[in-house]
């Protein structure tokens, strides 16, 4: 679970991204042509923001105030871009076609920190470290997000997978690095490295491995096409799905709960399966519970609340608050209109981002963004943005 972040105010400065931020958002373009495109819209004057949010739209990024949801800055950035917290209260990691870039939301500009490589993939924060996995190269980069201050690339740990693949990695408190095994054609499981990158554990009983989440007691779950693989206290444990094909590909964890929240799909032949069941995996008992919500959801629908609540944004427009211990839906909060997950995973759909006691939900069809107080269940703020947004994230202090 995310620890509370400092409620500090950030004041943006005038942007000069054309000279300082090299953002090759279209494969094959040279840096000079990308520089000309990746600049901030000059009409947007930077203003102070609290608890910043960042959203992508077709052609750029919005920086927003996390309390008022007011738009503070528009940054032009062509291509399909993705967002993740950098692990501190001042930066967000932006994935472009050229690699990972770091956005300073205090200055509302890109820093000089870049991790170049094709197909930048998962970004994971755990135990005060941020881990980047570049699918196109298999490279893993680990750094302390506190070292992002100053705009210089942090000194950190690196590891290169045996073969490039769509993977993920996480560094544990004791310095062990858990990272996935696979090739571009087939993913099979995970291995664990010691502080010196020497392999100490391996498990290849996790076909189609995808995604990770950490539970209470530093139990790490990684998804499989037939259940979930748990790594805890130096041991791997497989949790089998009740179906021959029971894919758990997206998970959310909380450091206050031993139970992981996951999606659950059972049709390997589907062009796009729209499941109505979610999975709750107890990392202490290695038991899996399925809960039918009566509504479908997408991979951007999962989150965790401050007390470990399991949160799922359904296509019925409601935010479902679930007790992970019992699987009971304690509350349904209407937030957006009914929607359907698009066939193309890169297309916009309502997206959930949770920070502390607030759930932020985008509504691309109406160009809306909402803030929901999880304690009261009230929709406290809503705004309409110039363009429909796609991904949504924000600053999240280390945990």
Kindly list the characteristics that best describe this protein.
399 residues, 4-stranded antiparallel β-sheet, single chain, mainly beta, 46% strand, disordered N terminus
**Could you tell me the mean pLDDT?**
90
The residue fraction in helices comes out at under 10%
Query: What is the terminal separation in angstroms?
Result: 8 Å
Strands of the largest sheet, in order across it? 5-4-3-35
Low-confidence stretches: 1-44
Largest sheet: 4 strands, antiparallel
Strand content: over 45%
**What class, by secondary structure content?**
mainly beta
So what's the overall shape? globular
How many DSSP-defined strands? 35
Give a verbal description of the structure.
The strands form nine sheets. Strands 5-4-3-35 form a four-stranded antiparallel sheet, with no helix packed on it. Strands 6-7-8-9 form a four-stranded antiparallel sheet, with no helix packed on it. Strands 10-11-12-13 form a four-stranded antiparallel sheet, with no helix packed on it. Residues 1-44 have low confidence and may be disordered. It is built from two helices and 35 strands. Helix content is 3%, strand content 46%. The N and C termini lie close together (8 Å). By secondary structure, it is an all-beta fold.
């Amino acid at each position: 679970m995310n620890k509370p972040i400092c409620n500090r105010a950030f004041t943006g400065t005038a942007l000069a991204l054309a000279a300082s931020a090299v953002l090759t958002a279209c494969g094959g373009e040279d840096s000079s042509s990308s520089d000309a495109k990746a600049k901030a819209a000059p009409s947007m004057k930077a203003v102070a923001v609290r608890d910043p949010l960042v959203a992508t739209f077709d052609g750029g990024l919005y920086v927003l105030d996390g309390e008022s949801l007011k738009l503070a800055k528009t940054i032009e950035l062509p291509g399909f871009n993705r967002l993740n917290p950098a692990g501190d209260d001042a930066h967000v990691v932006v994935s472009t076609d050229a690699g990972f870039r770091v956005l300073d939301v205090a200055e509302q500009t890109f820093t000089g920190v870049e991790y170049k490589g094709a197909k930048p993939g998962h970004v994971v924060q755990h135990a005060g470290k941020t881990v980047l996995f570049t699918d196109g190269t298999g490279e893993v980069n680990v750094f302390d997000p506190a070292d992002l201050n100053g705009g210089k690339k942090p000194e950190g740990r690196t590891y290169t997978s045996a073969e490039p693949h769509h993977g993920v990695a996480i560094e544990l408190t004791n310095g062990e690095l858990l990272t996935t095994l696979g090739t571009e054609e087939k993913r099979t499981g995970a291995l664990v490295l010691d502080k010196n990158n020497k392999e100490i554990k391996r498990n290849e009983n996790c076909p189609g491995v995808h995604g990770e989440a950490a539970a209470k007691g530093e139990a790490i779950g990684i998804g499989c096409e037939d259940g979930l693989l748990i790594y805890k206290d130096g041991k791997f444990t497989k949790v089998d799905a009740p179906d021959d094909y029971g894919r758990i590909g997206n998970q959310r964890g909380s450091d206050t709960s031993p139970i992981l929240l996951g999606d659950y799909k059972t049709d390997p032949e589907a062009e796009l399966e729209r499941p109505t069941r979610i999975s709750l995996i107890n990392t202490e008992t290695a038991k899996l519970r399925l809960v039918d919500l009566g509504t479908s959801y997408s991979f951007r629908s999962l989150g965790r609340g401050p007390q470990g609540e399991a949160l799922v944004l359904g296509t019925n427009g409601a935010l479902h608050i679930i007790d992970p211990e019992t699987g009971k839906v304690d509350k349904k909060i209407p937030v957006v209109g009914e929607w359907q997950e698009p066939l193309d995973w890169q297309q916009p759909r309502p997206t959930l981002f949770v920070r502390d006691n607030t759930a932020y939900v985008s509504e691309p069809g109406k160009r809306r963004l909402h803030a929901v107080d999880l304690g009261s269940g009230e929709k406290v703020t809503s705004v309409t943005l110039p363009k429909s947004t796609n991904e949504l994230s924000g600053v999240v202090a280390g945990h």
